[in-house]
Amino acid sequence: MRTVERFVLAVEGINEVAGRGAAWLTLAMLVITFAVVVLRYVFSIGFVWLQESYVWLHGVVFMVGAGYTLAYDGHVRVDILYRDAPARTKALIDLLGAAVLLLPFVLAVAWVSWPYVAAGWLRLEGSREAGGLPGLFLLKSVLLVFCLLLGLQGLAMAGRALLCLAGRPVPPAPHDRPADR
Questions:
Q1: What is the pLDDT of residues 79-112, one digit of tens each?
Q2: Number of CB atoms found within 10 A of residue 158's CB
Q3: How many Å apart are CA 38 and CA 66, to the nearest integer?
Q4: Which of 14, 121, 127, 164 could bridge across to 91 with cysteines, CB 3.0–4.6 Å?
Q5: Nearest-CA neighbor of 144 among 156, 155, 152?
Q6: Is the distance from CB of 43 to CB of 92 less than 8 angstroms?
Q7: pLDDT (tens digit, 9 = 90+) per residue, 2-53?
Q8: Is 173 helix (H, G, I), strand (E, B) or coil?
């Protein structure tokens, strides 16, 4: 069970780095969006690549930040039963939710996305717009990064539940740890 605990903490560390990195991308989105507005409405200048960049960043922020959000219990949850349930019941719900809903979803998205991403890489696909960004295949790859980070966090959530159900000490979840920010 010590291996499970190490796995959980390692995955949460990976998602912590990914989530904080994605959070910084929101600042870049803000600056780029401001620049696009000023260039367009003050100077009557427009760059397709600049407009695409904040849209692409928006997608990256949500896809890369999904595992972080799950680690911090930030996804929408209907917790009528969950909220007041004992720890073992919560662990069982988390384990079943990860095994029956989350992980099959992530695997299905990865399965469907793989040919789409591979085709983009084979063509080194770029934007369809004249003057657009050249690396669309890199943006498409974020779909697989999403699956990896969210799937790993789902496994960590299941591992946390297994530790609880086995009566082992469970390390505090990221949302229960003291803020070090």
A1: 777 888 898 998 999 999 999 999 999 999 999 9
A2: 21
A3: 31
A4: 164
A5: 152
A6: no
A7: 889 899 999 999 999 999 999 999 999 999 999 999 999 999 999 999 999 9
A8: coil
Closest CA to 158 of 7, 16, 2: 7
Q: How many residues does the chain have?
A: 181
Distance CA 164, CA 59 (A): 35
- The span from the CA of 91 to the CA of 168, in Å, is 12
The DSSP symbol for 82 reads: T
Is 10 within 8 Å of 65 (Cβ atoms)? no
Whole-angstrom distance, CA of residue 74 vs CA of residue 72: 5
Per-residue pLDDT tens over the stretch 122-131: 999 999 999 9
pTM of the predicted model as reported, rounded to 2 decimal places? 0.88
Task: At 151, list the tokens.
Answer: 């799937």
CA atoms within 13 A on the CB side of 105: 12
Three-state SS letters, 40-109: HHCCCCCCHHHHHHHHHHHHHHHHHCHHHHHHCCCCCCCCCCCCCCCHHHHHHHHHHHHHHHHHHHHHHH
Calculate mean pLDDT across residues 62-73. 94
